[in-house]
Amino acid sequence: MIWEQGLKDYKKMSNKLAIVLVFSFMNFSNSFSMTNVIQHNYSYNNFSHIMICLSIFVTLLMSMVSSQTAEKNAKQSSLFKSSVMMLLMVMLFFFSTKNMILFYVTFELSLLPTMMLILKWGSQPERLQATMYFMLYTMCASLPLMYMLFQLYLNNMSFTMNPNYPMNSMTQMNYLMCMCMVTAFLVKLPMWGVHLWLPKAHVEAPLSGSMILAGILLKLGGYGLLKFTELMYKTQSPSFNLIFAINLWGAMLMGFVCMSSMDMKVLIAYSSVIHMNLPVLGVISQSIIGMMGAMLMMISHGIGSPGMFTMANSNYEKTKSRNILLNKSMSITQPNMMMMWFLLISANMAAPPSLNLASEILISMSVLKISFIFAIPLSLITMLGGVYNLYIYSAQLGNNSNKIMPFTADSSMNYIIYISQAFMCYFVILLINNCVC
Protein backbone atom coordinates (compact mmCIF):
# COMPACT_ATOMS: atom_id res chain seq x y z
CA MET A 1 0.00 0.00 0.00
CA ILE A 2 2.82 2.42 0.82
CA TRP A 3 4.55 1.85 -2.51
CA GLU A 4 1.24 2.15 -4.37
CA GLN A 5 0.56 5.52 -2.73
CA GLY A 6 4.10 6.62 -3.52
CA LEU A 7 3.73 5.71 -7.17
CA LYS A 8 0.39 7.51 -7.27
CA ASP A 9 2.00 10.67 -5.88
CA TYR A 10 4.86 10.26 -8.33
CA LYS A 11 2.46 10.23 -11.28
CA LYS A 12 0.55 13.18 -9.86
CA MET A 13 3.66 15.36 -9.52
CA SER A 14 5.45 14.35 -12.71
CA ASN A 15 2.84 14.18 -15.46
CA LYS A 16 3.41 17.68 -16.86
CA LEU A 17 7.18 17.68 -16.59
CA ALA A 18 7.40 14.16 -18.03
CA ILE A 19 5.82 15.35 -21.28
CA VAL A 20 8.51 17.99 -21.69
CA LEU A 21 11.20 15.45 -20.79
CA VAL A 22 9.97 12.99 -23.42
CA PHE A 23 10.08 15.63 -26.17
CA SER A 24 13.56 16.68 -25.07
CA PHE A 25 14.83 13.11 -25.32
CA MET A 26 13.14 12.72 -28.70
CA ASN A 27 15.21 15.66 -29.94
CA PHE A 28 18.27 14.06 -28.36
CA SER A 29 17.73 10.56 -29.70
CA ASN A 30 21.22 10.25 -31.17
CA SER A 31 24.13 9.41 -28.90
CA PHE A 32 26.21 12.26 -27.52
CA SER A 33 29.12 12.85 -29.86
CA MET A 34 31.83 15.45 -29.40
CA THR A 35 32.00 15.89 -33.17
CA ASN A 36 28.50 17.33 -32.95
CA VAL A 37 29.12 19.22 -29.74
CA ILE A 38 32.31 21.03 -30.73
CA GLN A 39 32.25 22.16 -34.33
CA HIS A 40 34.79 24.86 -35.15
CA ASN A 41 35.32 25.20 -31.38
CA TYR A 42 31.87 26.70 -30.95
CA SER A 43 28.78 24.52 -31.26
CA TYR A 44 26.90 23.25 -28.22
CA ASN A 45 23.64 21.98 -29.66
CA ASN A 46 23.71 18.53 -28.12
CA PHE A 47 25.15 19.85 -24.88
CA SER A 48 22.25 22.31 -24.74
CA HIS A 49 19.85 19.37 -25.05
CA ILE A 50 21.62 17.61 -22.19
CA MET A 51 21.39 20.69 -19.97
CA ILE A 52 17.70 21.06 -20.79
CA CYS A 53 17.09 17.41 -19.85
CA LEU A 54 19.11 17.92 -16.66
CA SER A 55 17.00 20.97 -15.78
CA ILE A 56 13.79 19.02 -16.26
CA PHE A 57 15.13 16.05 -14.28
CA VAL A 58 16.19 18.19 -11.31
CA THR A 59 12.95 20.19 -11.41
CA LEU A 60 10.93 16.98 -11.44
CA LEU A 61 12.75 15.58 -8.42
CA MET A 62 12.55 18.90 -6.62
CA SER A 63 8.79 19.06 -7.18
CA MET A 64 8.39 15.53 -5.87
CA VAL A 65 10.49 16.01 -2.74
CA SER A 66 8.89 19.37 -1.91
CA SER A 67 5.27 18.41 -2.57
CA GLN A 68 4.37 17.83 1.08
CA THR A 69 6.04 21.03 2.25
CA ALA A 70 4.63 23.31 -0.42
CA GLU A 71 1.08 21.97 -0.46
CA LYS A 72 0.08 22.99 3.05
CA ASN A 73 -2.57 25.21 1.52
CA ALA A 74 -3.78 26.01 -1.96
CA LYS A 75 -2.21 29.48 -2.05
CA GLN A 76 1.28 28.27 -1.14
CA SER A 77 0.99 25.34 -3.52
CA SER A 78 0.05 27.64 -6.40
CA LEU A 79 2.92 30.03 -5.64
CA PHE A 80 5.41 27.18 -5.39
CA LYS A 81 4.33 25.61 -8.68
CA SER A 82 4.40 28.99 -10.42
CA SER A 83 7.94 29.67 -9.20
CA VAL A 84 9.12 26.23 -10.29
CA MET A 85 7.56 26.43 -13.74
CA MET A 86 8.85 29.97 -14.25
CA LEU A 87 12.37 28.85 -13.40
CA LEU A 88 12.10 25.86 -15.72
CA MET A 89 10.91 28.02 -18.61
CA VAL A 90 13.77 30.47 -18.01
CA MET A 91 16.25 27.58 -18.12
CA LEU A 92 14.76 26.23 -21.34
CA PHE A 93 15.17 29.63 -23.01
CA PHE A 94 18.68 30.12 -21.61
CA PHE A 95 20.03 26.79 -22.85
CA SER A 96 18.43 27.07 -26.29
CA THR A 97 18.83 30.72 -27.30
CA LYS A 98 21.36 32.10 -29.77
CA ASN A 99 20.46 35.72 -29.07
CA MET A 100 22.91 37.40 -26.72
CA ILE A 101 20.33 39.76 -25.20
CA LEU A 102 17.91 36.93 -24.45
CA PHE A 103 20.89 34.99 -23.13
CA TYR A 104 21.68 37.81 -20.69
CA VAL A 105 18.04 38.42 -19.71
CA THR A 106 17.39 34.77 -18.89
CA PHE A 107 20.74 34.59 -17.10
CA GLU A 108 19.53 37.34 -14.74
CA LEU A 109 15.87 36.34 -14.67
CA SER A 110 16.79 33.03 -13.04
CA LEU A 111 17.42 35.00 -9.83
CA LEU A 112 13.76 35.87 -9.27
CA PRO A 113 12.17 32.43 -8.72
CA THR A 114 15.21 31.26 -6.76
CA MET A 115 14.99 34.28 -4.46
CA MET A 116 11.29 33.57 -4.05
CA LEU A 117 12.01 30.01 -2.93
CA ILE A 118 14.59 31.20 -0.39
CA LEU A 119 12.50 34.07 1.01
CA LYS A 120 9.17 32.26 1.11
CA TRP A 121 10.20 28.79 2.27
CA GLY A 122 13.45 29.52 4.10
CA SER A 123 13.12 28.80 7.81
CA GLN A 124 15.58 31.24 9.42
CA PRO A 125 15.59 35.08 9.62
CA GLU A 126 19.08 35.03 8.07
CA ARG A 127 17.47 34.14 4.75
CA LEU A 128 17.16 37.90 4.08
CA GLN A 129 20.92 38.33 4.37
CA ALA A 130 21.52 35.25 2.23
CA THR A 131 19.20 36.61 -0.46
CA MET A 132 20.99 39.97 -0.42
CA TYR A 133 24.36 38.25 -0.85
CA PHE A 134 22.96 36.16 -3.67
CA MET A 135 21.46 39.14 -5.48
CA LEU A 136 24.37 41.58 -5.04
CA TYR A 137 27.11 39.14 -6.01
CA THR A 138 25.39 37.93 -9.16
CA MET A 139 23.85 41.19 -10.37
CA CYS A 140 26.91 43.37 -9.78
CA ALA A 141 29.13 40.85 -11.57
CA SER A 142 26.77 40.68 -14.54
CA LEU A 143 26.80 44.42 -15.30
CA PRO A 144 30.22 44.25 -17.02
CA LEU A 145 28.89 41.35 -19.10
CA MET A 146 26.02 43.50 -20.34
CA TYR A 147 28.50 46.21 -21.33
CA MET A 148 30.60 43.69 -23.25
CA LEU A 149 27.56 42.31 -25.07
CA PHE A 150 26.80 45.78 -26.40
CA GLN A 151 30.45 46.14 -27.39
CA LEU A 152 30.10 42.93 -29.38
CA TYR A 153 27.02 44.36 -31.05
CA LEU A 154 28.86 47.55 -32.01
CA ASN A 155 31.65 45.49 -33.57
CA ASN A 156 29.47 42.95 -35.35
CA MET A 157 26.08 44.71 -35.69
CA SER A 158 24.27 41.61 -34.49
CA PHE A 159 23.14 40.08 -31.21
CA THR A 160 23.21 36.56 -32.66
CA MET A 161 25.78 34.13 -31.28
CA ASN A 162 27.61 33.18 -34.45
CA PRO A 163 30.87 31.20 -34.50
CA ASN A 164 31.89 32.96 -37.73
CA TYR A 165 31.94 36.45 -36.25
CA PRO A 166 34.58 38.79 -37.71
CA MET A 167 36.40 39.04 -34.41
CA ASN A 168 39.43 40.91 -35.71
CA SER A 169 38.56 44.05 -33.78
CA MET A 170 37.89 42.03 -30.64
CA THR A 171 41.28 40.36 -30.61
CA GLN A 172 42.73 43.61 -29.29
CA MET A 173 40.64 43.50 -26.12
CA ASN A 174 42.63 44.53 -23.08
CA TYR A 175 42.87 42.43 -19.96
CA LEU A 176 40.14 44.35 -18.16
CA MET A 177 37.67 43.76 -20.99
CA CYS A 178 38.46 40.05 -20.94
CA MET A 179 37.73 39.91 -17.23
CA CYS A 180 34.47 41.80 -17.78
CA MET A 181 33.44 39.15 -20.27
CA VAL A 182 33.76 36.21 -17.88
CA THR A 183 33.30 37.71 -14.38
CA ALA A 184 29.55 37.09 -14.31
CA PHE A 185 30.05 33.42 -15.17
CA LEU A 186 32.85 32.97 -12.62
CA VAL A 187 30.67 34.42 -9.85
CA LYS A 188 27.76 32.19 -10.82
CA LEU A 189 29.91 29.02 -10.78
CA PRO A 190 31.22 30.25 -8.23
CA MET A 191 34.99 30.69 -8.41
CA TRP A 192 36.95 30.71 -5.17
CA GLY A 193 37.14 34.26 -3.82
CA VAL A 194 33.63 35.19 -5.00
CA HIS A 195 31.94 32.13 -3.50
CA LEU A 196 30.74 33.55 -0.17
CA TRP A 197 27.15 33.85 -1.36
CA LEU A 198 26.83 30.12 -2.05
CA PRO A 199 27.13 28.66 1.51
CA LYS A 200 24.79 31.34 2.84
CA ALA A 201 22.22 30.67 0.13
CA HIS A 202 22.40 26.90 0.64
CA VAL A 203 22.12 27.09 4.43
CA GLU A 204 19.07 29.36 4.39
CA ALA A 205 17.36 27.87 1.35
CA PRO A 206 14.81 25.06 1.65
CA LEU A 207 15.57 21.72 0.05
CA SER A 208 13.99 22.81 -3.23
CA GLY A 209 16.21 25.90 -3.34
CA SER A 210 19.36 23.89 -2.62
CA MET A 211 18.52 21.38 -5.34
CA ILE A 212 17.92 24.14 -7.89
CA LEU A 213 21.11 25.97 -6.90
CA ALA A 214 23.31 22.88 -7.04
CA GLY A 215 21.66 21.16 -9.97
CA ILE A 216 20.94 23.99 -12.39
CA LEU A 217 21.93 27.54 -11.44
CA LEU A 218 25.62 26.84 -10.89
CA LYS A 219 25.73 25.35 -14.39
CA LEU A 220 24.75 28.68 -15.93
CA GLY A 221 28.24 29.96 -15.25
CA GLY A 222 29.94 26.96 -16.83
CA TYR A 223 27.62 27.04 -19.81
CA GLY A 224 28.35 30.74 -20.29
CA LEU A 225 32.09 30.10 -20.24
CA LEU A 226 31.67 27.45 -22.91
CA LYS A 227 29.57 29.82 -25.01
CA PHE A 228 32.29 32.47 -24.97
CA THR A 229 35.20 30.08 -25.46
CA GLU A 230 35.69 31.35 -29.02
CA LEU A 231 36.51 34.81 -27.75
CA MET A 232 38.77 33.38 -25.07
CA TYR A 233 40.78 31.51 -27.70
CA LYS A 234 41.20 34.54 -29.92
CA THR A 235 42.17 37.03 -27.22
CA GLN A 236 44.82 34.83 -25.55
CA SER A 237 44.63 37.12 -22.52
CA PRO A 238 47.04 36.54 -19.60
CA SER A 239 44.04 37.31 -17.41
CA PHE A 240 42.95 33.73 -17.90
CA ASN A 241 46.25 32.52 -16.47
CA LEU A 242 45.34 34.35 -13.27
CA ILE A 243 41.88 32.76 -13.29
CA PHE A 244 43.48 29.35 -13.81
CA ALA A 245 45.77 29.84 -10.81
CA ILE A 246 42.97 31.12 -8.56
CA ASN A 247 40.72 28.16 -9.37
CA LEU A 248 43.49 25.62 -8.79
CA TRP A 249 44.52 27.23 -5.51
CA GLY A 250 40.91 27.72 -4.39
CA ALA A 251 40.00 24.09 -5.02
CA MET A 252 42.83 23.01 -2.71
CA LEU A 253 41.84 25.44 0.05
CA MET A 254 38.19 24.41 -0.14
CA GLY A 255 39.24 20.81 0.43
CA PHE A 256 40.72 21.76 3.80
CA VAL A 257 37.64 23.84 4.63
CA CYS A 258 35.40 20.84 3.93
CA MET A 259 37.48 18.67 6.24
CA SER A 260 37.04 21.16 9.10
CA SER A 261 33.31 21.79 8.61
CA MET A 262 30.80 20.37 11.08
CA ASP A 263 27.66 21.52 9.26
CA MET A 264 26.62 18.89 6.73
CA LYS A 265 24.89 21.36 4.41
CA VAL A 266 27.81 23.80 4.46
CA LEU A 267 30.23 20.95 3.74
CA ILE A 268 28.25 19.89 0.68
CA ALA A 269 28.05 23.53 -0.47
CA TYR A 270 31.83 23.96 -0.23
CA SER A 271 32.34 20.70 -2.08
CA SER A 272 30.25 22.22 -4.88
CA VAL A 273 32.75 25.08 -5.05
CA ILE A 274 35.53 22.53 -5.59
CA HIS A 275 33.65 20.63 -8.26
CA MET A 276 32.67 23.77 -10.17
CA ASN A 277 36.20 25.19 -10.07
CA LEU A 278 37.52 22.17 -11.97
CA PRO A 279 35.50 22.80 -15.18
CA VAL A 280 37.06 26.27 -15.35
CA LEU A 281 40.48 24.61 -15.50
CA GLY A 282 39.30 22.43 -18.37
CA VAL A 283 37.90 25.35 -20.35
CA ILE A 284 40.91 27.64 -19.85
CA SER A 285 43.29 24.82 -20.82
CA GLN A 286 42.03 25.44 -24.39
CA SER A 287 41.93 21.77 -25.34
CA ILE A 288 39.15 19.55 -26.61
CA ILE A 289 39.56 17.02 -23.79
CA GLY A 290 39.44 19.86 -21.26
CA MET A 291 36.12 21.05 -22.64
CA MET A 292 34.82 17.48 -22.69
CA GLY A 293 35.81 17.08 -19.04
CA ALA A 294 34.17 20.39 -18.13
CA MET A 295 30.90 19.33 -19.74
CA LEU A 296 30.91 15.92 -18.06
CA MET A 297 31.79 17.47 -14.69
CA MET A 298 28.81 19.83 -14.89
CA ILE A 299 26.48 16.98 -15.78
CA SER A 300 27.74 14.70 -13.00
CA HIS A 301 27.62 17.48 -10.41
CA GLY A 302 24.14 18.49 -11.54
CA ILE A 303 22.91 14.99 -10.73
CA GLY A 304 24.95 14.08 -7.65
CA SER A 305 24.93 17.31 -5.66
CA PRO A 306 21.11 17.61 -5.45
CA GLY A 307 21.11 14.01 -4.26
CA MET A 308 23.57 14.88 -1.49
CA PHE A 309 21.38 17.76 -0.36
CA THR A 310 18.32 15.50 -0.44
CA MET A 311 20.02 12.97 1.82
CA ALA A 312 21.28 15.71 4.17
CA ASN A 313 17.75 17.08 4.43
CA SER A 314 16.45 13.60 5.25
CA ASN A 315 18.95 13.39 8.12
CA TYR A 316 17.92 16.85 9.31
CA GLU A 317 14.25 15.87 9.39
CA LYS A 318 15.14 12.96 11.66
CA THR A 319 17.66 14.56 14.04
CA LYS A 320 16.63 18.24 13.72
CA SER A 321 20.30 19.11 13.37
CA ARG A 322 22.80 19.55 10.55
CA ASN A 323 25.72 18.85 12.87
CA ILE A 324 27.60 15.82 11.59
CA LEU A 325 28.38 14.56 15.10
CA LEU A 326 24.67 14.51 15.96
CA ASN A 327 23.82 12.36 12.94
CA LYS A 328 25.45 9.18 14.16
CA SER A 329 23.85 5.72 14.32
CA MET A 330 22.21 6.02 10.89
CA SER A 331 23.78 2.70 9.94
CA ILE A 332 21.82 1.08 12.77
CA THR A 333 18.50 2.88 12.52
CA GLN A 334 18.40 3.49 8.74
CA PRO A 335 20.56 0.92 6.88
CA ASN A 336 18.74 1.54 3.60
CA MET A 337 19.56 5.22 3.85
CA MET A 338 23.22 4.45 4.43
CA MET A 339 23.28 2.43 1.21
CA MET A 340 21.98 5.47 -0.69
CA TRP A 341 24.54 7.65 1.09
CA PHE A 342 27.32 5.28 0.05
CA LEU A 343 26.31 5.33 -3.62
CA LEU A 344 26.05 9.12 -3.78
CA ILE A 345 29.27 9.75 -1.84
CA SER A 346 31.15 7.24 -4.00
CA ALA A 347 29.98 9.06 -7.11
CA ASN A 348 30.88 12.42 -5.55
CA MET A 349 34.45 11.26 -4.85
CA ALA A 350 34.85 9.99 -8.43
CA ALA A 351 34.71 6.27 -7.75
CA PRO A 352 34.32 4.06 -10.84
CA PRO A 353 32.15 3.75 -12.86
CA SER A 354 30.69 7.16 -12.08
CA LEU A 355 30.62 9.97 -14.63
CA ASN A 356 32.58 12.11 -12.19
CA LEU A 357 35.60 9.83 -12.63
CA ALA A 358 35.66 10.28 -16.41
CA SER A 359 35.34 14.05 -16.07
CA GLU A 360 38.18 14.34 -13.54
CA ILE A 361 40.47 12.20 -15.71
CA LEU A 362 39.82 14.36 -18.78
CA ILE A 363 40.30 17.62 -16.88
CA SER A 364 43.50 16.31 -15.29
CA MET A 365 44.83 15.32 -18.72
CA SER A 366 44.14 18.80 -20.09
CA VAL A 367 45.81 20.49 -17.10
CA LEU A 368 48.86 18.21 -17.14
CA LYS A 369 49.23 18.95 -20.85
CA ILE A 370 50.06 22.53 -19.84
CA SER A 371 52.64 21.56 -17.21
CA PHE A 372 53.31 18.35 -15.33
CA ILE A 373 54.00 20.33 -12.16
CA PHE A 374 50.24 20.73 -11.77
CA ALA A 375 50.14 17.03 -10.85
CA ILE A 376 50.91 18.02 -7.24
CA PRO A 377 47.86 20.27 -6.63
CA LEU A 378 45.60 17.98 -8.67
CA SER A 379 46.66 14.97 -6.58
CA LEU A 380 46.02 16.94 -3.41
CA ILE A 381 42.55 17.98 -4.60
CA THR A 382 41.69 14.36 -5.41
CA MET A 383 42.99 13.11 -2.06
CA LEU A 384 41.11 15.76 -0.08
CA GLY A 385 37.95 14.96 -2.04
CA GLY A 386 38.14 11.36 -0.90
CA VAL A 387 38.84 12.40 2.70
CA TYR A 388 35.92 14.78 3.21
CA ASN A 389 33.47 12.50 1.38
CA LEU A 390 34.45 9.56 3.57
CA TYR A 391 34.23 11.92 6.54
CA ILE A 392 30.55 12.54 5.78
CA TYR A 393 29.86 8.82 5.53
CA SER A 394 31.93 7.54 8.44
CA ALA A 395 30.58 10.22 10.81
CA GLN A 396 27.14 8.62 10.51
CA LEU A 397 28.41 5.22 11.62
CA GLY A 398 28.92 3.98 15.18
CA ASN A 399 26.91 4.03 18.37
CA ASN A 400 23.81 6.05 19.05
CA SER A 401 24.44 9.73 19.65
CA ASN A 402 23.37 11.49 22.82
CA LYS A 403 20.57 13.19 20.94
CA ILE A 404 17.20 11.43 21.13
CA MET A 405 15.93 10.61 17.64
CA PRO A 406 12.29 9.47 17.66
CA PHE A 407 11.84 9.18 13.90
CA THR A 408 10.19 6.86 11.43
CA ALA A 409 11.36 5.44 8.13
CA ASP A 410 11.29 7.51 4.95
CA SER A 411 8.28 7.40 2.68
CA SER A 412 8.25 5.46 -0.54
CA MET A 413 8.32 8.74 -2.47
CA ASN A 414 11.64 9.66 -0.86
CA TYR A 415 13.13 6.26 -1.70
CA ILE A 416 12.07 6.69 -5.33
CA ILE A 417 13.94 10.00 -5.37
CA TYR A 418 17.04 8.53 -3.70
CA ILE A 419 17.20 5.59 -6.09
CA SER A 420 16.64 7.81 -9.14
CA GLN A 421 19.53 10.09 -8.22
CA ALA A 422 21.90 7.27 -7.32
CA PHE A 423 21.00 5.40 -10.52
CA MET A 424 21.63 8.45 -12.71
CA CYS A 425 25.02 9.15 -11.09
CA TYR A 426 26.37 5.86 -12.43
CA PHE A 427 24.34 5.04 -15.52
CA VAL A 428 23.98 8.42 -17.20
CA ILE A 429 27.38 7.73 -18.77
CA LEU A 430 25.67 5.04 -20.89
CA LEU A 431 23.60 7.79 -22.54
CA ILE A 432 26.71 9.68 -23.63
CA ASN A 433 29.02 6.77 -24.28
CA ASN A 434 30.56 8.31 -27.41
CA CYS A 435 31.75 11.51 -25.74
CA VAL A 436 35.22 10.13 -24.93
CA CYS A 437 35.72 8.12 -28.10
Search tags:
437 residues, mainly alpha, 20 helices, 0% strand, membrane, EC 7.1.1.2
Description:
By secondary structure, the chain is mostly helical. α3 (45-65) packs antiparallel against α11 and α5 runs antiparallel to α7. The N and C termini lie far apart (46 Å). It has one domain. Helices cover 74% and strands 0% of the residues. The relative contact order is 0.11. It is globular, with a radius of gyration of 21 Å. It is built from 20 helices and no strands.
The number of distinct β-strands equals 0
List the uncertain runs. Answer: 1-7, 21-44
Mean pLDDT: 79
Strand content: under 5%
Overall tally of domains: 1
End-to-end CA span: 46 Å
- What's the helical proportion of residues? over 70%
Radius of gyration: 21 Å
What sort of overall outline do the alpha carbons produce when their principal axes are compared?
A: globular
Topology order in helix (H) and strand (E) letters: HHHHHHHHHHHHHHHHHHHH
Main β sheet profile: none
Classification by helices and strands? mainly alpha
Tally the helices: what do you get?
Answer: 20
Chart the SSEs and their pairings.
Elements: H1 2-27, H2 34-37, H3 45-65, H4 67-70, H5 74-96, H6 100-109, H7 111-121, H8 127-156, H9 175-188, H10 197-204, H11 207-227, H12 229-235, H13 239-260, H14 264-284, H15 288-319, H16 330-333, H17 335-348, H18 355-370, H19 375-394, H20 412-427
Helix pairs in contact: 1-3, 3-5, 3-11, 3-15, 5-6, 5-7, 6-8, 7-8, 8-9, 8-10, 9-11, 10-14, 11-14, 11-15, 13-14, 13-19, 14-15, 14-18, 14-19, 15-17, 15-18, 15-20, 17-19, 17-20
GO cellular component, one term: mitochondrial membrane
EC number: 7.1.1.2
GO molecular function: NADH dehydrogenase (ubiquinone) activity; NADH dehydrogenase activity; ubiquinone binding
